[in-house]
Structure formats: structure tokens, C-alpha cells
């Protein structure tokens, strides 16, 4: 096994003989798996990356007092300055979220600033996935009716709360609707949301910078002033349209086309949808914002109040990872059990051995692997993956 | 909570308070009537069922009670438990008094507790006699439990842990209480020594139901629960790995069984496993399936020779290790087996409360010809003084002193 796995490398650097091919024993190629460095932000231990966006990263973290899983959004001041209204939007999101508390609205638990690194940390509820991610995974990019209904009514509850607090979200779309482990929907991303002044008696607003596909005609058409709550009703309508059909109500090859279609093209609801749902979508996607259904009307609509039997199989929350286990453990392990100085090396030889072993195991029994997944404790030694960094090649020097 | 909101909160609580005309037999020793477990009992029917000359009604007003001495604090200092006297019947009671001005999120939990307890009726589950609000306080009246809580007993009199027969009797009734709760689809989520109360006859009563959660949703039956307990930080050492893991698999009523395993160690060893270690390390130990155990000659001799515990922190032997009493005693193999079974990592392989009631460790209690108070001798219950008169407050004070702790570090909780 040893010999067959040997690696041949050529070196052209030598003066004596440029064509020497040196044989390196697989025992001598050494890898160092990436260190899971234990890092704290306030009282939170930081774990794996959950997602990345233009503003920065979102990482999993763990509250060391309650041991509750959380997510932390890490933003760099430098990058924020480059995004139009970046800094302003973050400040607004923080200001808004601090005042909100509802089970269908993501909660902001802590905000930390690191002035030296120029970083802002926002600690929020831990969510497993977003609706967009699930849609992308689904066979025909849509949910079964009962599943869509389950999420939509939660979206309405969250929106009702936001509107009662004078907050217009302005960017409702599947990508901003996250799911917690118990499949509670959480409205997130308040970067472009607006808080109405408490003294104002109407909800007229003048700007909206949400995602173009989900913008209502009054925004697309450039109206100077429009009722804000109805913006969210339209976007929620587009979202529902998307969840049940896998399509968007209005599309266009460019922004101009898209906005033109939103303003002028009549709505076409796919025929396979039942008439009650069609009437709801039509009511929510009425071009005239004053005639469009209000949130209260949507909530009391027959489609929202009636029960939907779950006949089709639901799109799983987890996808390939049916568990979404806590990602902090390797970090804790390195903190408590492995000393800082001690580096862990793995040779190519060991790597091949473990690969072969893994293959044997998978051939032997599928149930074995299933058991292993259930017992992370038994898989103490992590196997290096493709992202291993070559630490040192001991015999690369010319002899 | 602002002063403005307070009256509204009070009226909310008043409406859910146990109806004042519920009549309950409070005579010591007569409380363990085998009630039929019913999910909802109308107070009237219950009153009829138990009406007899000895029945006492508990008024929902502070004037009927005379508060005597402080027993302990609850809910992280939000409230306190007091020994009190019911003036009309001249009987002793415990009253839990919450300061509503101090309660924030906790208020919802107290509300949840009152509502849950009201729906339950079992000899091993706490029963409230009445509850009401006076000014900014919420009073919850309940029977006085003579031996207070199991953890307090251990802290005051059994620093090396309870003797095995007493342990078996306590755990048996805890399991009975849990079996009932689980049959009602309730997960307790906070089974711990301080929530195991013992009355003067030795009957065990489970409290702390404000942490509980119902498995059934309003609309459909859910087999698993995913919600993380709002006050989890109080009970982390007792929490099951699957609850702590917070993954998509969720947890079930088996989570309580894991806590029972921890409680056996807590009461058997005299201190809870993972005491004084960082919670993150406790998490790592639990998720990597290193389990705590009972300390005795069979489990501790090795580690004393080596000077260090071998199997991690879970079973790390604290100051107790140096204690000769521990290295010379021997728990029965069935006791060790029960702990190992209850602490099984995989919930589906873990026995249910009913399974454990048939375990050898629990079955041995049938052969006992003594009751729990006899095993706890010479510790006397608070309610030992049978004559109730003017001297009682003093006597109670005395026995409270005897039972009270030198330091307040034992976080005990009615």
C-alpha cells in the first residue's frame, strides 16, 4: 500500500540535474489540519461560519452563561463604508431591533464593537436555514401548499407585530425569512426597514430600497409618497406567490423591464393553484396600493384561516445535514484538552490509511455510519478534509 | 414592570388563581390520597369529592395568613418561601411570595406554572391551595413540606449523600411523578434535588413546573420539542445532552430521565456532578458521552491511588474524595446500573420512567419495612411540633435554625 501511494514530484530548480524526479515517501508529507481556535466575543464562544454576505460573515456562537446557540453577524467598518448607506443601515437595524420582541422577528441580543479591529458584532437568534435556501434545494423550487401556509401565517404574525410597532420592513422576501430549529419563522434583515415617527398618524413613506423583484408598483413607478404598510403586503404577496409556485409574479431581463412589468403587466396566477389562493394572491398584488388588501384582511382571508392537509412530503429544513448539530465542540475541545503550542500533524500516509478505512466501513454497513453520526463523541479524531493546508514538506529540499 | 402596568398584571394573575373555594385536606399524613389522574379537574367537583368536616377552605386574601419565617428563595431571587399559619384553621403552610415589581420575563413563567399545576393532580406533584395578589405581591399558598427539599436535606445533614435505601425511596416517587407528567405529555425539564420536596410523612412532591413544557402543540401532536428553556441557566448541570445540543432532532420526555440520573448522583454523592466547572466544559463532557457516576469504593479507589480522576470532569470527585466514608461505602450494583441506564446518551435507548420503575434498584424498595422518615433519622421534619399554639413560631424558628445552612450557596428552590 505504501509504495503504490507514493507521490512523485519533479523539481527543476537544481543546477546539477534538472530532470531528477525525487521519490517522496508518503510518510514524509505532513499536513496540519486547520486549528479550531477558541475565540470569545463578550460572553459568546465563536464557532463555524453559517453564511457570508456583502457586509461580512455570520458565525454560530454559544452563550457561555445559558449555553444557548446564537448567531453573530460580524461586520467590518471598512467594508461597510464602501457599501452605499452601509454604515447607516447597520445603525438603523441595531436601533430598530433593540425595540422589537416577537417570536417571528429575529431578536438582537447583544451588540459589541471592536474599535481596534474596526468590527461590529451583532448577536442574534440562531437559525438553521432560510426559506430561499430551502427553495433552492426543493425539486421544483416550491413548497407543498401546507408547508407554504405554515410559513406564511407566521410571516403575517410577524408583520402584524412590526406594523403595530410602526415598523415597515420594506424587504420581505424568502431570503430574509429564516427558520429556527423548531421551524419557527423569523423575519430578519432590517437594514432598509423604516420606523414611523410616533407622532405621525398615517403610514406614508417616501423611499424603499428593498429587492427589486419584490417591489410594489408605487415604488417601481417612482411615486413620491405611498402607504408603507401596503409595501410589505405586496412583498408578502410576491413571497407567497414564490413559495407556492416556484415562480415570481413579475420578471424582466433588466431593472427597467422589471419595473415596467410590475407597473403595467397584469398579474397571471398559475392555473394549478386553487381559486381561494388565487383570490388571495390577486388581492395582495393589486397594483393600486389603496385598493390592495390590508394585513388584517389578509389574515382573515379564507386561505389563511383554513386548515391545509399535508398531503405532500415537506421540504426538509436540514437538507443533507438532517441534524445541524452544534459546531462549537471542536473549539471547546481545543480549548480544554489541547494545549496551544502543540500542533497536530497528519502525514499523507495516515491520510490514505484513514481514507481506506472509511471506504471499508462504508462498504461494510450503512447503519454503522448512521450510528456514528448520532454519536459525535465517538468520532473524536477529526479527519482532515480537502481544505487542509500543507504545513511543511520535509523532503522538498534537495539532497 | 412599571407601576402603571402592575394593576393589570395583578388582575391577570387573579383571574387564574386557584379558585378560593377549593377544599383540601391539610392534615398531615392524609394528603396522600390516591387521586385519579385527571387532566382537568373542575374545582367544584373536586371540592364535592373531598368535602368532609375536616375540610378547610383557603381564602385568597392575605389577612387569613400569618407569615412566620423565611424558608428559602425561589426563581433566582424573584421571590421567597415562608412558613406561615392559616389563621382560621390554625394550620401550618408554606407561602411562596413573588415580588411582581421585580419580575420581568419571569412573570410569564410563574403564570405558566400556576396554570400547569392547576391542571395536574397526582400525589407526587406539587399542589397549590390558592393563589392571589396583594398590592405588588403574588402569594401562592401550598402545604408545608416538612423535610423541605432533597438537596437541602443533603446539604444540611447528608454531606456525603443519602443512604441507598432513602435514595431508592426518593427516586421511586420522583419516577412516579414523572411517569404521570409524561402521560400528560409534559416534560418537566428541571428535575433536580431542589425541586424534589419531601413532606413529613416522606412523600415526595415534584415542584419547579415553571420550567416545564407541553409536548402537544395546539394544532397537532409533536413528538419532539425544540424550544430551549427560558431559564435554562439554573438547571444546566441537570440538563440532558439532547436538550443542550439544540439541533434539529430536538428532545423528548426522555430528557427528564437523564436528569433523574444526574439527581441520583447529586443525592447519592452529596453534590451535583459538574459542580464548579465551566458550563462549556460540562457541555463538552455530556456531548462526548462521558458520564457521571456514584462515588463509592468500587468507583473511587482507583482514582485515589492515581491522585486524579481518570474519566474526565463528569465524574470528577471533588473534596468529597478525601472523605473516608465515601471510599469505604459501597452502592449496590443495581444503583450503579440505574445511573448508567438513565444517563444513556441516545434518548431512544434510554429507559422511560415506567421502565425504570421496574428496575432492580427501585424494586428493592418493596422489601423495605421502614419508611423514608425512618431512613432519614435523626433529621426531624419542620412540622414535627404537633401542637399549634403561641410557642410554635419559636419552635419552628429553632428547627429552621437547625436545618438552615451555614452558607447560602445552596441554590434551593421550591
From TrEMBL, chain A:
CC per GO annotation: cytoplasm
GO terms for MF: ATP binding; metal ion binding; protein kinase activator activity; protein serine/threonine kinase activity
Biased composition (Basic and acidic residues): 368-377
Binding locations of ATP: 73
EC number: 2.7.11.1
One Gene Ontology term from the biological process aspect of the record: intracellular signal transduction
SMART domains reported in the protein's UniProt record: S_TKc
Name of the protein in its database record: non-specific serine/threonine protein kinase
TrEMBL record, chain B:
GO cellular component: serine/threonine protein kinase complex
InterPro entries linked to this entry: Kinase-like_dom_sf, Prot_kinase_dom, STRAD_A/B-like
Any one Gene Ontology BP term: protein export from nucleus
Source organism superkingdom: Eukaryota
Gene3D superfamilies linked to this entry: Phosphorylase Kinase, domain 1, Transferase(Phosphotransferase) domain 1
Domain Protein kinase: 65-362
GO molecular function: ATP binding; protein kinase activity; protein serine/threonine kinase activator activity
Family to which the UniProt record says this protein belongs: Belongs to the protein kinase superfamily. STE Ser/Thr protein kinase family. STE20 subfamily.
PANTHER family documented for this protein: SERINE/THREONINE-PROTEIN KINASE FRAY2, SERINE_THREONINE-PROTEIN KINASE FRAY2
Protein name, as recorded: Protein kinase domain-containing protein
Amino acid at each position: 500500500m505504501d509504495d503504490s501511494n507514493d507521490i512523485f514530484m519533479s523539481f527543476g530548480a537544481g543546477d546539477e540535474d534538472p530532470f531528477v524526479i525525487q521519490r517522496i515517501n508518503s510518510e514524509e508529507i505532513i499536513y496540519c489540519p486547520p486549528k479550531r481556535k477558541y475565540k470569545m466575543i463578550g460572553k459568546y464562544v465563536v464557532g463555524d461560519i453559517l453564511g457570508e454576505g456583502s457586509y461580512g460573515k455570520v458565525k454560530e456562537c454559544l452563550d457561555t452563561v445559558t449555553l444557548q446557540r446564537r448567531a453573530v453577524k460580524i461586520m467590518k467598518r471598512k467594508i461597510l463604508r464602501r457599501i452605499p448607506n452601509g454604515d447607516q443601515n447597520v445603525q438603523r437595524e441595531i436601533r430598530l431591533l433593540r425595540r422589537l420582541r416577537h417570536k417571528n422577528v429575529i431578536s438582537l441580543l447583544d451588540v459589541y464593537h471592536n474599535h481596534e479591529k474596526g468590527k461590529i458584532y451583532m448577536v442574534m437568534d440562531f437559525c438553521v436555514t432560510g426559506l430561499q435556501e430551502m427553495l433552492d434545494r426543493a425539486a421544483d423550487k416550491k413548497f407543498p401548499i401546507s408547508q407554504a401556509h405554515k410559513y406564511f401565517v407566521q410571516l403575517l404574525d410577524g408583520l402584524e407585530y412590526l406594523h403595530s410597532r410602526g415598523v415597515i420592513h420594506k424587504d420581505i422576501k424568502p431570503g430574509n425569512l429564516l427558520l429556527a430549529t423548531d421551524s419557527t419563522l423569523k423575519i430578519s434583515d432590517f437594514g432598509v426597514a423604516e420606523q414611523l415617527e410616533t407622532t405621525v398618524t398615517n403610514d406614508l413613506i417616501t423611499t424603499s430600497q428593498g429587492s427589486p423583484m419584490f417591489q410594489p408598483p408605487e415604488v417601481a413607478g417612482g411615486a413620491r409618497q405611498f402607504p408603507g404598510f401596503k409595501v410589505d403586503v405586496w412583498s408578502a404577496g410576491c413571497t407567497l406567490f414564490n413559495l407556492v409556485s416556484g415562480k415570481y409574479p413579475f420578471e424582466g431581463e433588466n431593472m427597467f423591464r422589471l419595473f415596467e412589468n410590475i407597473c403595467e403587466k397584469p398579474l397571471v396566477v398559475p392555473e394549478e393553484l386553487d381559486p381561494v389562493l388565487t383570490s388571495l394572491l390577486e388581492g395582495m398584488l393589486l397594483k393600486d396600493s389603496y385598493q390592495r388588501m390590508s394585513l388584517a384582511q389578509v389574515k382573515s382571508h379564507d386561505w389563511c384561516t383554513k386548515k391545509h392537509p399535508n398531503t405532500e412530503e415537506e421540504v426538509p429544513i436540514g437538507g443533507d445535514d438532517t441534524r445541524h448539530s452544534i459546531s462549537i465542540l471542536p473549539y471547546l475541545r481545543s480549548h480544554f484538552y489541547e494545549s496551544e503550542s502543540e500542533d497536530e500533524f497528519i502525514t499523507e500516509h495516515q491520510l490514505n490509511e484513514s481514507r481506506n478505512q472509511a471506504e471499508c466501513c462504508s462498504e461494510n454497513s450503512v447503519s454503522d455510519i448512521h450510528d456514528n453520526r448520532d454519536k459525535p463523541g465517538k468520532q473524536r479524531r477529526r479527519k482532515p478534509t480537502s481544505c487542509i493546508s500543507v504545513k511543511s514538506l520535509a523532503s522538498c529540499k534537495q539532497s | 414592570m412599571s407601576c402603571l402596568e402592575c394593576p393589570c398584571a395583578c388582575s391577570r394573575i387573579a383571574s387564574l388563581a386557584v379558585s378560593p373555594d377549593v377544599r383540601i385536606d391539610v392534615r398531615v399524613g392524609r394528603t396522600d390520597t390516591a387521586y385519579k389522574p385527571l387532566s382537568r379537574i373542575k374545582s367544584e367537583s373536586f371540592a364535592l369529592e373531598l368535602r368532609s368536616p375536616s375540610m378547610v377552605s383557603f381564602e385568597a386574601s392575605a389577612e387569613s395568613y400569618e407569615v412566620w419565617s423565611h424558608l428559602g428563595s425561589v426563581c433566582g431571587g424573584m421571590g421567597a418561601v415562608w412558613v406561615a399559619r392559616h389563621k382560621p384553621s390554625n394550620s401550618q403552610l408554606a407561602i411562596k411570595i413573588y415580588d411582581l415589581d421585580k419580575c420581568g420575563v419571569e412573570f410569564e413563567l410563574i403564570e405558566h406554572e400556576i396554570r400547569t399545576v392547576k391542571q395536574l393532580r397526582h400525589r407526587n406533584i406539587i399542589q397549590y391551595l390558592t393563589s392571589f395578589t396583594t398590592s405588588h405581591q403574588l402569594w401562592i399558598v401550598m402545604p408545608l413540606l416538612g423535610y423541605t427539599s432533597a438537596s437541602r436535606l443533603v446539604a444540611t445533614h447528608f454531606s456525603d449523600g443519602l443512604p441507598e435505601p432513602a435514595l431508592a425511596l426518593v427516586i421511586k416517587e420522583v419516577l412516579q411523578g414523572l411517569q404521570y407528567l409524561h402521560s400528560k405529555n409534559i416534560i418537566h425539564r428541571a428535575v433536580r434535588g431542589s425541586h424534589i420536596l419531601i413532606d413529613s410523612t416522606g412523600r415526595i412532591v415534584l415542584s419547579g413546573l415553571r420550567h416545564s413544557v407541553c409536548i402537544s402543540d395546539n394544532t397537532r401532536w409533536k413528538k419532539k420539542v425544540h424550544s430551549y428553556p427560558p431559564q435554562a441557566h439554573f438547571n444546566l448541570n441537570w440538563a440532558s445532552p439532547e436538550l443542550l445540543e439544540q439541533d434539529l432532532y430536538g428532545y423528548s420526555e426522555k430528557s427528564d430521565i437523564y436528569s433523574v440520573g444526574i439527581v441520583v448522583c447529586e443525592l447519592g454523592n452529596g453534590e451535583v456532578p459538574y459542580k464548579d466547572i465551566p458550563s462549556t466544559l460540562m457541555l463538552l463532557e455530556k456531548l462526548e458521552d462521558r458520564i457521571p457516576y456514584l462515588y463509592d469504593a468500587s468507583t473511587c479507589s482507583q482514582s485515589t491511588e492515581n491522585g486524579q480522576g481518570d474519566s474526565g470532569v463528569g465524574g470528577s470527585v471533588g473534596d468529597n474524595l478525601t472523605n473516608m466514608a465515601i471510599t469505604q461505602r459501597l452502592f449496590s450494583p443495581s444503583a450503579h446500573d440505574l445511573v448508567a441506564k438513565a444517563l444513556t446518551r441516545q434518548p431512544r435507548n434510554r429507559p422511560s420512567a415506567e421502565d425504570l420503575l421496574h428496575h432492580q434498584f427501585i424494586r428493592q424498595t418493596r422489601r423495605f419495612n421502614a419508611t423514608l422518615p425512618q431512613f432519614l433519622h435523626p433529621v426531624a421534619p419542620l412540622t414535627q411540633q404537633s401542637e399549634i399554639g403561641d410557642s410554635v413560631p419559636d419552635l419552628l424558628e429553632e428547627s429552621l435554625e437547625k436545618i438552615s445552612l451555614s452558607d447560602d450557596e445552596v441554590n434551593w428552590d421550591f
